[in-house]
Amino acid sequence: MSVFEGFRFRHVSSPIHRLDPRVKFFYVLVIFGVAIAFLEVLPLIFLFLIQIPFVFIASVQREWIRSLKGASFLAILIFVVNFAFGYFGGFYPSSMSPWEYPLAMSLRFLVLVESFSIFFLTTSPDHLSLALEQSHVPYEFCFAFTTAVRFVPVLAEEAQTIMDAQKARGLELEKGNFIKRVRNYIPILIPLIVSAIRRSLDLAEAMESRAWGATEKRTNLYVLKMRSADYTLIAISIGMVLLSIYVRLFITIPSLTTLLT
Amino acid sequence: MIEVKGVYFTYPIGVEALKGVSLTIRDGEFVAIMGSNGAGKTTLVKQFNGLLKPAKGEVLVDGVNTRKVSIASLARKVGFVFQNPDNQLFCETAEEEIAFALKNFGFKEETVKSRVTWALNLLGLTQYRQTSPFMLSGGERKRLALASVLAWEPKVVVLDEPTIGQDFEQKERLRQFIVQLNAQGKTVIIVTHDVEFVAECGPRVVLMAEGKIVADGNAKEILTDKELAFKASIVPPQITQIFLGLADFGLPTDVINVHEAGKILFDILKEEVKP
Amino acid sequence: MIESSFAKYSGDNNLPIIQTKNLTYTYPGGTKPAIKDVSLTVEKGDFVILTGPSGCGKTTLCRCFNGLIPHFYSGKLEGELTVGKLNVVDHQIYEMASHVGLVFQNPENQLFALSVEKDVAFGLENLGLPRAEIRKRVDWALQMTGIEELWERAPHELSGGQQQRVAIACVLAMQPEVMVLDEPTSFLDPLGAQKIFEVINELNRKLGITVILVEHRLDLASKYANHVVIMDEGTIVLDGKPREVFDSESARLIGVGIPRATRLWQMLKQNGIRLAGAPVSSEEVIQLLRGVLKRD
Description:
The complex is a heterotrimer.
Chain A: H1 2-5, H2 21-37, H3 41-50, H4 52-57, H5 61-89, H6 100-121, H7 125-134, H8 139-167, H9 178-184, H10 186-209, H11 228-250, H12 256-260
Helix pairs in contact in A: 2-6, 2-11, 3-6, 5-6, 7-8, 8-10
Chain B: E1 2-10, E2 16-25, E3 30-34, H1 41-45, E4 56-61, E5 64-65, H2 71-77, E6 78-81, H3 94-104, H4 109-122, H5 138-150, E7 156-160, H6 168-183, E8 187-192, H7 195-201, E9 204-209, E10 212-218, H8 219-223, H9 226-231, H10 238-245, H11 258-272
Parallel strand pairs in B: 3-8, 3-9, 6-7, 7-8
Antiparallel strand pairs in B: 1-2, 1-4, 4-5, 9-10
Chain C: E1 18-26, E2 35-42, E3 47-51, H1 58-65, H2 68-72, E4 76-83, E5 86-87, H3 93-96, E6 100-103, H4 116-126, H5 131-144, H6 160-172, E7 178-182, H7 190-207, E8 210-214, H8 218-221, E9 227-232, E10 235-240, H9 242-247, H10 249-254, H11 260-270, H12 282-294
């Protein structure tokens, strides 16, 4: 579960946490776009490094490193596969040595993981839901999202209780061959599912009783307002887009091989 | 016999639920483990069938250290009836539900059948043999959960908060059933915060607060001790409250039972109040 | 001032706030009615305890008060039911929500948000109230239930008792004239239950909210009530003042757990010792007996 810790929101206050989620998401999309625009290693290394200050400002270093650790396995896989195809199939641009392109692909993947990780680490589900609401996503979806997040710890606890209850009736989860082990989970899944159904009924009753559906124009206790920090980030993002376009069109980026030899 | 020796236990999230608990429960005893929510009662009884293992100290069930054997083997001796029957019901019929544990414990086909019949009969559920557990009412599901535990005849029966959500009649029947179980030689352990229920049953009471045992003795002594009640955040039975409120008139203060209270008051008042 | 908006029910103060006549309801697919010919009158400001054996129909009746029956649960509802001036059948559940609040048994399953204050605001957001009004009411509701310091906590971190107080605050924020609570203390220990009853009692006394409390724990709750209704097998069997109801023979026969204080008093009466009044709480018995024993 530790790789998921790299994406779970932490209750900390920092300038990054306070940014409008819509602006943060725009920034992440920009990073995504820029990462796709370049095949060369150098710009990708640059992209990876400029996000690191954000990590430290938001004080989420530990979790962020965990997410990268989790992603590293896939990154290595991407490298190996691309290298194999390139080297044995001759599919790489002639200006680079055979290992540069695969390296760029892995880096691109890491840059994406890094930026999404920062996004989710610094945006509370509540905040996210509010951003969705204000972006005119229908309220039912926002509500479903926050309710799901709210019940994750409850479900986890319930799963543990159900396992305890069945173990106390002699169920041994580790015994038997693969098929038997899968079947051993039926006594755990069924009570979980039944409980989820019962719970939804309870929730529906409670929602109705608190005027769900009273009006199309739902108001909210909080509202997201853009502040100077948000506008600054928008400016930075747009700046990055412009810079990338300029570099792409007018500058030839030296390959790493050329630089090193 | 269950021996708990200096047990400490901390949950993974960091809460220290048991802080040096020692306790011995002999075969055939009837014990109520009491305390407010969060005192450590459920954490303690989960050590008895190995669901939880002590971080420090040890738990011996019939001389066997719980760390050394599987949960299944401990469960064979210590039957656990959980608070919410819906946490365990999953079969298509009540019969299968009861047979589940029996099959897990390796009982033979014919034995399984006869035990199912016996258990259904014992809890008054014979007519529901082929009924889906999900079609039963709340009270019936509770009885089915109890039946499925009694079917394999464990030496010790632990009931976790059996009175929650029960009405007066249901509690009465449960009380009589438990007393009967105990009379038949089973060790019965109930975990509960229901003071009135315990006052009616009159078992040995082990009172817990903040992960420690603060008192262990007779229901009468413990439930009528004002300071203990305050320490463990429990509310004394109504009858006890009445007698504690009249202590300055020289009335006995260790009364927990309505009938006993009636008798005492009658003896005192029959002179005073003539119709 | 917030309190004055409770004068929403601006009609005749002499009219009962809830009136049912021959209310009968069968769940869809049910073979017999869950409630039959229920006729009940509740006065404004009453603190009603609704009790009876499991399956007697009290939960079904609760769901009629705010319109869950017949609007959420289909099935056939016959008879009349008016709350305030509203006929429940003619109004949607969301219309009834600002007049009748319903607090459910399971604390966990009525809190949806990730923070207490968002949960309390939920109903008000649904009603589309302006933000400033929502803020005012949320703070007020948190204060009235004594949970201000929990405002930004996640529901999962709270104890059962705290969760139920949040649930009460959620309902209170909508400022209903009536609050119905369906076995709110089932999952709580006696101290937690007592706290809940004290909060509900405060709301009843200070704000004049009519309370309908479904409970088995009559020992703890009886002393707050001025009206007790006992149901059995779908019908109302006893309806009146606590003392009369608990003392009646039928109560014992139905199998309702009348307060032990009352039981003690009854026992003495049966053996020829008559004491004044009919106590429902330990305090009352102590008073009575002190009076008698002093004459020594």
